[in-house]
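Batch job 17 of 40 flagged for manual review because the log was empty.
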Amino acid sequence: MRVLFATSELAPLIKTGGLADVSAALPVALREQGEDVRVLLPGYPKVLAALPILETVAVFTSLPAYPEARLLSGILADGVPIYVIECPELFQRGGGPYQDEHGHDWIDNPIRFGLLSKIAAVLGSAESPLEWRPEVVHCNDWQTGLTPAYLSLAAEAAPCVMTIHNLAFQGMFPAHTIMNVGLPWQCFQPNGVEFYGHLSFMKAGLFYSKHITTVSPSYAQEIQTDELGFGLQGLLRTRSGDLTGILNGIDNVEWNAAQDHHLPAAYTIDDLSGKAINKAKLQQRMGLHVDADTPLFGLVSRFTHQKGLDLVLEIAPQLVASGAQLVLLGSGDAEMQRQVLELVHQHSGSISAYVGFDEALSHQIEAGADLFLMPSRFEPCGLNQMYSQRYGTPPIVHATGGLIDSVVNCRAATLATGEASGFVFDEMSALELMRTAQRALKVYRDKKMWHAVQTNGMKKDFGWQKSAEMYQAIYARL
């Protein structure tokens, strides 16, 4: 099948979160299954710099409401064909894909991602200037949400799959924006793109797409509830027959402790001795007291309320008092960043943090920590809990979304069946998080039991093959 995979991020070229990782891995997995998948991506400066060998295959001069753009074609390092939208007026600028250097959203984001959506729709319809025509267009998150709306108005339109990576981000803009993106006013209604008086890119995608997927089975259920539907739960319940939750996979080559070039020492499920070396090197790098027997908690996360960082900050002094250490990597909310640095100052040698992002350090924390903290209030899928299990670092997670779908709570029964791979708590509170950490520490001190939990996680297959097969089945049905 010919599939156009439209996305606003693609690792390692441009990344702000898990969308980039999925956009890099899923097309590769689908191509390995024999499908002709090609990626469509905006031409940000980093993308154009990383892909110097690109050929112009089309020029768009008369798209209503949009500036002139060129479509460039090339091949990624992993062999996946890519189309890049070159439009200097919209994409050739500093900052990130969505915000400027100061963290403010680009004011013309609806035009920038409207263009991405429009070109995806043109390529998936009779208007396409290319010989290659997709049989399915696969869109991702609000940035490509107008694609199904455009396709609904096009001749010979390919069916569209819309994947929700995080429903909390919806691409909401003033009503008059509909004129700026070249959609007719008849689309601006509840049975269309209108959402409480605004134009919603996400709602457009959910309403007009032929099928909706999201990134874990549990999250597919949660977004149909008032608590996590963010106002779209009614529409999602109406479309529940067209909604499928498919757990994301991870890159088993990039995240492999046996050959991870970011690590001081390699290790395997049969020989975990290298993990102790990684722990000592991590303690040393982060200014913690080097002690093999001191349990080390790790966290790699955006510093936000959604990720439950406030609970981690609340229990951090108790963790230290119980004889543990804590290392954090991430950035986000300015006040949370300040509190993190204050904790580091107050507990020098026991708490350490790197505010920002460092790819190598993220691998070193996954490998060097004993336990991984991931107490997200909601988590559509999450990848770090999979990385940590693969690295023999049992995670502590809140029972939500992809976390509950990928971590088996350590209990007597799950230990007996060889399934226990982490520690799960239900009530979202600092007290419950601390209780779960104490429960994990009790298991940690029983070396035989701990080794069982570690190896149970390391045995799991979090690869993309099964997920890719589920996407294939949806494409084929459409």
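Reviewer: the log was empty due to a logging misconfiguration, but the result itself is present. DSSP finds 19 helices and 18 strands in the chain. Unflagging and moving on to job 18.
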